[in-house]
Amino acid sequence: MDRFRDRFTLAGAKDDSRDAEVMASALRTDLRCFRPLAVADPVVIELREWSRIANDLGAERNRLTNRMREQLWRYFPAMLDLESDLGAEWLLDLWEIAPTPHKAIRVRERRSPRS
User: Fold this and answer.
1) How far is 27 from 1, CA to CA, in rounded Å?
2) Structure pTM?
3) Helix residue ranges per DSSP H, 7-41
4) Distant-in-sequence, close-in-space partners of 21: CB < 8 Å, separation ≥ 6
5) Which single residue of 8, 14, 71, 104 has CA 20 to 30 Å from 56?
6) Cβ atoms of residues 9 and 19 within 8 Å
7) 76 near 100, Cβ under 8 Å?
8) In Å, how far from its chain's centre is CA 61?
9) Which residues, including other chains, have CB under 8 Å from residue 107's CB and lie 6 or more apart?
């Protein structure tokens, strides 16, 4: 659209009303420069959305893990030595059982019923 805008003015300033006029004129006089938009297959659209959701969730997991690392570093640094992936399921379960150093001291290994 930038090249079409040069037909109306050489000033680089953006103006929404002028841009609308430029687009309308370009569609009227230079239709060959544009291609029709095809509607994407619904499966492709759904896959694209699932992919975006997965990326967003991965980024959110990283943000939360970094926040968790910062908090653990401040008050429970021994927990950081257990696992490099702070989002590991077993570590989160352990943290639920022993959320503070004081409670962690009192946790004992549970034996299985057969031993």
Assistant:
1) 11
2) 0.56
3) 16-29
4) 8
5) 71
6) no
7) yes
8) 9
9) 97, 98
75's tokens: 């008050």
One-letter amino acid identity for 81?
Answer: D
Owner of token pair 């609308």: 20
Whats the size of the chain, residue-wise?
115
Cα separation, 77 vs 75, whole angstroms: 6
Residues 73/101, Cβ–Cβ less than 8 Å: no
Tell me the CA distances in angstroms from 84 to 53, 69, 72, one per residue in order: 25, 10, 12
pLDDT tens digits along 28-72:
888 888 888 888 899 999 999 999 999 999 999 999 999 999 999
Angle formed at CA 91 by CA 89 and CA 96, multiple of 5 degrees? 95
